[in-house]
Amino acid sequence: MFADYFWFFVAACSYLVGSVPFGLLVARLFTGTDIRKAGSGNIGATNVARTLGAKWGILVLLLDALKGLLPVLLIPPLFVSPESPDFDHARVLSGVATILGHMFPLWLGFRGGKGVATSLGVILVLGPWSTLVAVTGFALTFLLTRIVALSSIVAAVAFGVAQFIQLGSTAFTHQKWSLAAFSIAVPLLIIIRHWSNLGRIMRGEEKKFSFGSRNKTETTSTEENRNQGSS
Predict the structure, then answer these.
(1) How many CB atoms lie within 10 A of CB 215?
(2) By the 8 A CB rule, do 164 and 171 touch?
(3) Does residue 3 carry a pLDDT above 80?
(4) 201 three-state secondary structure
(5) What pTM did the predictor assign?
(6) What are the two backbone dihedrals, phi and then psi, of residue 196, each rounded to the nearest 5 degrees?
(7) pLDDT of residue 226
(8) 67-77 b/e with 16+ CB inside 10 Å = b?
């Protein structure tokens, strides 16, 4: 069985990986910009892309997704055998801790990103088929609206619905209950993190996405753009 203190190690290690602020690091190392003072002030890939351009936004997106994927793949096997009945629960715990690390990083006063890219990496491991549904939902919504926040919310809901369809009657069995709980809690958390965006969407005030450039950084750091970031 999975020793009690191993739960702590899985969660702590995953949280620390998730809390690495790639958006802040990439912006500062490669452009000299404090991304927290540009655009929306969010450290996620969307704000990096809006303010610094496509290549930096894509780089942050990939890094944030990898920091969601790798802990779930690599950390649980360090503490529990894949044959153990607790292995799937350990992977879910690792995924949740990683996402929380991104959203609430200790190093930045618990003010992080909105968790979309990191969640993408996590769900690629925990629910690959449901991830395909979520990505499709995101892509279709974005093509129709060009609003990242709305696309992210649609993707989160699509993932949860697809997961429960796939889990079926096994959803709350001993082996699958943690994955079922994850499929409710994480989409809800992403929606909550986008709550201000949702309000602007309902009022028709949410701005459509467009790539920025290094030269636009100073002009986009206005109060009206605050909290526009999504990832």
Answers:
(1) 9
(2) yes
(3) no
(4) helix
(5) 0.90
(6) -65, -35
(7) 47
(8) bbbbbbeebbe
- pLDDT of 215 higher than 60: no
Whether residue 229 has pLDDT greater than 80: no
Nearest alpha-carbon partner for 6 in 64, 74, 93, 85: 93
Phi-psi region of 105 (alpha: psi -120 to 50; beta: other; left: phi over 0): beta
- Site of tokens 């990986």: 17
Radius of gyration of the chain (CA): 18
Surface-to-core class of residue 223, CB atoms within 10 Å of its CB (0-12 exposed, 13-18 middle, 19+ buried): exposed
Q: Say if residues 95 and 72 touch (Cβ distance below 8 Å).
A: yes
Q: What is the dihedral of CA 133, 136, 138, 140, to 10 degrees?
A: -140
Query: Does the structure show a pLDDT above 50 at 231?
Result: yes
User: Using CA atoms, how far apart are residues 184 and 67, in angstroms rounded to an integer?
Assistant: 21
The dihedral through the CA atoms of 25, 127, 7, 73 has a sign that is negative
Single out the residue of 140, 139, 132, 177 nearest to residue 159, CA to CA.
132
Q: Which two tokens stand for residue 52?
A: 């610094």
Provide, rounded to the nearest whole percent, the portion of the chain with pLDDT above 90. Answer: 83
Name the band, by pLDDT with cuts 50, 70 and 90, for residue 212: confident
